[in-house]
Write a structure and sequence with these properties.
201 residues; alpha+beta; Maf protein; 8-stranded mixed beta sheet; 24% strand; globular
């Protein structure tokens, strides 16, 4: 197979986050394409995400990597929106309180900012926007969400990031207490990846 033929059989996902790549590979496994991270292809890129929405940031990343590589590139931007806090941390979720700040500290801060706020006003959602940048210049975006509430304390070891404080009333647990399979089935990233899979197929 030619080098171009090989490239068409694979998708670059613009991330080096190992937890995220595991979810992505599990959900896109049946597309028949190899799913590679930037690390897998030896690419480092410092892309300034200065969009004002999750979609804009995902498109910025996907387009930049597609222009560098000439390949089909997927990129996501995701985060947590807390209604009581005017949808903070939102697109700044990864950078909230500084990129090097541990999520234990970030989570504790958000819980303290909601002290005394009753259940019905603790509504929140995880949002994931995924952009596909095709070699011919086409761009597609999809969005997935998962609705819940902010818990009163961290619970669960299965997730990462804000998962331990994201409570799902329907399931009676945080998203960090779900099994990996359950989380993939109902998560914002799972929903967005399945929508993107429809687009790719």
């Amino acid at each position: 197979m030619s080098e171009n033929g090989k490239k068409l059989q694979r998708i670059l996902f613009a991330t080096n986050n190992a937890d995220k790549m595991r979810e992505i590979r599990e959900i896109l496994a049946d597309t028949g394409r190899e799913i590679l991270s930037l690390q897998d292809v030896g690419l480092t890129a410092n892309i300034v995400e200065d969009g004002e929405t999750f979609e804009e940031n995902a498109v910025i990343k996907a387009k930049a990597i597609a222009q560098m590589t000439g390949e089909l590139v997927l990129a996501d931007d995701s985060g947590l929106e807390i209604d009581y806090l005017n949808k903070e941390p939102g697109i700044y979720s990864a950078r909230y309180m500084g990129e090097d700040t541990s999520y234990r500290i970030k989570n504790a801060n958000l819980i303290s900012r909601l002290e005394g706020v009753p259940d019905e006003k603790r509504t929140a959602r995880f949002v994931c926007a995924i952009a596909a940048a095709y070699p011919d210049g086409r761009i597609r975006t999809v969005r997935g969400t998962m609705e819940g509430r902010i818990a009163y304390e961290e619970r669960g070891e299965n997730g990462f990031g804000y998962d331990p404080i994201f409570y799902l009333p329907k399931y009676g647990c945080t998203s960090a207490e779900l099994s990996r399979e359950e989380k993939n089935r109902i998560s914002h990233r799972g929903a967005a990846l399945r929508a993107m899979k429809e687009e790719l197929l």
